[in-house]
Design a protein that fits this description.
One of its GO terms (cellular component) is cytoplasmic side of late endosome membrane. This protein is of the alpha+beta class and 117 residues long. 10% of the residues lie in helices and 23% in strands. The chain has a three-stranded antiparallel beta sheet with strand order 5-6-7. Strands 1-2 form a two-stranded antiparallel ribbon. The protein is rod-shaped, with a radius of gyration of 35 Å.
């Protein structure tokens, strides 16, 4: 950076740079403040839950579907051991015995599975 020079009084004499504003203060440039907001969402249950989809980067209410899991087979085995053979298929029809799959309604990807057992 070159300093401005004055030739009015003889040889070249460097002059001090003038401040940018009239009061003599030099503005200070600060880095922007970044605020990170973290949402703590409840763990999934057997119903639709608020979740954050890591695939489409949205906070969503999950879409649920039910699938036969370990709890269903355990209840069927218990009914078999008790001798209730005609009732063994009932746990396969009850959503309260099945595992719950949580899907994103926007990108249709599996987000989490709620296992009963």
């Amino acid at each position: 950076m070159e300093m401005p020079c004055s030739t009015e009084r003889g040889p070249l004499v460097p002059q001090a740079p003038t401040p940018p504003n009239s009061k003599g203060f030099v503005p200070v440039v600060q880095n922007p403040v970044v605020t990170t907001v973290t949402q703590v969402l409840a763990p999934p249950t057997d119903g639709p839950s608020m979740m954050f989809c890591t695939f489409c980067q949205r906070t969503i209410t999950s879409r649920t579907s039910f699938e036969i899991g370990l709890m269903t087979w355990a209840v069927c085995g218990g009914l078999f051991l008790l001798g209730c053979f005609p009732c063994m298929c009932i746990p396969c029809c009850l959503d309260s015995c099945k595992d719950v799959m949580h899907y994103c309604p926007h990108c249709n990807r599996l987000l989490q599975t709620y296992k009963r057992m």
